Automatic annotation (TrEMBL), chain A:
Binding site for [4Fe-4S] cluster: 49, 53, 56
Cofactor: [4Fe-4S] cluster
Organism: Dongia soli
Subunit structure: Interacts with PqqD. The interaction is necessary for activity of PqqE.
Protein name: PqqA peptide cyclase
Family under the similarity heading: Belongs to the radical SAM superfamily. PqqE family.
Gene name tied to this protein: pqqE
Gene3D superfamilies noted in UniProt: Aldolase class I (3.20.20.70)
Pathway linked to the protein: Cofactor biosynthesis; pyrroloquinoline quinone biosynthesis
EC number(s) given by UniProt: 1.21.98.4
Keyword Disulfide bond: no
From TrEMBL, chain B:
Assembly and oligomerization: Monomer. Interacts with PqqE.
Protein name listed in UniProt: Pyrroloquinoline quinone biosynthesis peptide chaperone PqqD
Keyword tRNA-binding recorded: no
Organism: Dongia soli
Sections of the chain in a coiled coil: none
Length: 398, 91
């Protein structure tokens, strides 16, 4: 049996070899000679969100509500995805539950055969609406926590009483019998609470806990000096996670994502560019990953203008880094090239200025030492604790 | 350590067995995971309905594949033990 992650894997890291997920070939019938069908899609229904987390994976320039796809457009896109062979859809955002038509979208996704996942803060939905989602066939919920400690959670999310709202929501999930994943995003300002976060997941009867270090793109990159942990902190968390995995074996599955800045091997970002995943923005742009818009000189087609199958198979944005032909050295001659697929393009861009360079998380990259230096400097800025919160109008100037 | 033969395994809540027509294979749909099943695993899991116990599942597979029940039992035990640990199969 082979197991594949279906979630777009900025959250999958190969940084610590014995923690790395197995990379297994996907036996598929290609839609065109060299292109496999996508496995899953991340649907960013909206960029609206009541939370202002400083590590948000949304772009700095967010889509306004007027630009969002309509219910009919999303339903058409979901049908096109099913025709293309995708198996799972992740409803994400922003906060997807602020879309009043979410129940209809979940129902439609189930009707066309999808496994449906809601990625939520749990802070913008009432109990009756949640139960309507379950009635519509929602399969799984991933609930984020900013911290186990309520005051810290309020500070990070910038929402009063955030923890009460999340705990109430988690109760509704449990009551409904729906499997729950708790997502704990880890950084320097909450890393000491790792044990409490693991305990929280156990207390909430989560099936899975995802302990994910912040990945530094977009808002998180703008807040890097306030978020980066030290190597010693990373080692502490890794040890606590390993310990909890043993303690809760068979009860709680713990996935662990290490920060690229301390890795020696790059993650297979998105399982390879244009290989397993795609991301659709609130206004309908189709991206190979959620941060792809940071790469200059690329244009991303819209589901409003082109059939999704065409975009997936032929769009320049998907072909650009697909497979291995685009690779420079040291990737080109590396025996890992079909395992890590050259790592992350957006990270290569953020550190080296060149999206086509080897991912500097790789020890073979000439930028690897520079990246470790950035991590050391950023984690050392312990006096830097202020966040630049995620807001529609607060995008930092470059 | 073998699973008890009177255990009645079923797919856990939130797990779906599904035929993936685009790739011509059986898969288990799981939270943020897709598990691609080989032919035997698919046959085993189609029988994990919560009705049949492990003894009945083994007997049914042995008959369908004209195989030695002892060998089938070992395969079934190994597969289900792993899936129970991952909370994909419930008991």
């Amino acid at each position: 049996m082979t197991e594949m992650r279906s979630k777009p894997a900025s959250t999958v890291s190969g940084g610590v070899p014995d923690l790395a997920p197995e990379q297994l070939p996907l036996p598929v019938r290609p839609v065109s000679p060299s292109v496999e069908p996508p496995l899953a899609a991340l649907l960013e229904l909206t960029h609206r969100c009541p939370l202002q987390c400083p590590y948000c994976s949304n772009p700095l320039e967010m889509d306004r509500v007027q630009a969002e796809l309509t219910t009919e457009e999303w339903c058409r896109v979901i049908s096109e995805l099913a025709m293309l062979g995708a198996l799972q859809v992740h409803f994400s955002g922003g906060e997807p539950t602020v879309r009043q038509d979410l129940v209809d979208l979940v129902r439609h996704a189930r009707e066309v055969g999808f496994y449906t996942n809601l990625i939520t803060s749990g802070a913008a939905i009432t109990r009756p609406r949640f139960l309507a989602l379950i009635d519509a066939g929602l399969d799984h919920v991933q609930l984020s926590f900013q911290d186990a400690e309520p005051n810290s959670a309020v500070r990070i999310s910038h929402v009063p009483n955030i923890q009460e709202k999340k705990l109430a929501f988690a109760g509704w999930v449990r009551e409904s019998g729906t499997p729950l994943t708790v997502n704990a995003v880890i950084h320097r300002q909450n890393i000491d609470h790792i044990d409490a976060m693991i305990d929280l997941a156990v207390k909430l009867h989560a099936n899975r806990l995802e302990v994910a270090h912040v990945q530094y793109y977009g808002w998180a990159l703008a807040n890097r000096a306030a978020l980066m942990p030290s190597r010693a902190q990373l080692e502490f968390v890794t040890e606590r996670v390993m310990d909890a995995r043993e303690r809760y074996r068979g009860k709680l599955v713990i996935d662990y994502v290490v920060p690229d800045y301390y890795a020696h091997q790059p993650k297979a970002c998105m399982g390879g560019w244009g290989r397993q995943f795609l991301n659709i923005t609130p206004s309908g742009k189709v991206l190979p990953c959620h941060a792809a818009e940071t790469i200059p000189g690329m244009t991303f087609p819209s589901v409003r203008e082109q059939p999704l199958a065409d975009i997936w198979a032929h769009a320049e944005a998907f072909q650009r880094f697909r497979g291995t032909d685009w690779m420079p050295e040291p990737c080109r001659g590396c025996d890992q090239r079909e395992i890590d697929w050259g790592g992350c393009r957006c990270q290569a861009l953020a550190i080296t200025g060149d999206a086509a360079a080897a991912d500097p998380a790789c020890a073979k990259s000439s930028w690897h030492a520079a990246m470790q230096e950035i991590a050391a400097t950023a984690s050392d800025a312990s006096s830097q604790t202020d966040f630049r919160y995620r807001r529609m109008a607060a995008a930092p100037k470059h | 350590m073998a699973l008890p033969s009177d255990m009645r395994p079923k797919l856990a809540r939130g797990i779906r067995l599904q035929f993936d027509a685009a790739r011509d294979q059986w898969v288990l749909q799981a939270p943020e995971r897709v598990l691609v099943l080989d032919e035997i695993a698919a046959e085993v899991l189609q029988r994990c309905t919560g009705e049949a116990d492990i003894a009945a599942i083994v007997a049914s597979l042995a008959e369908a594949f004209e195989a030695e029940p002892g060998e089938i039992a070992a395969d079934v035990d190994e597969l289900l033990t792993g899936l129970i640990e991952k909370r994909i199969v419930a008991t």
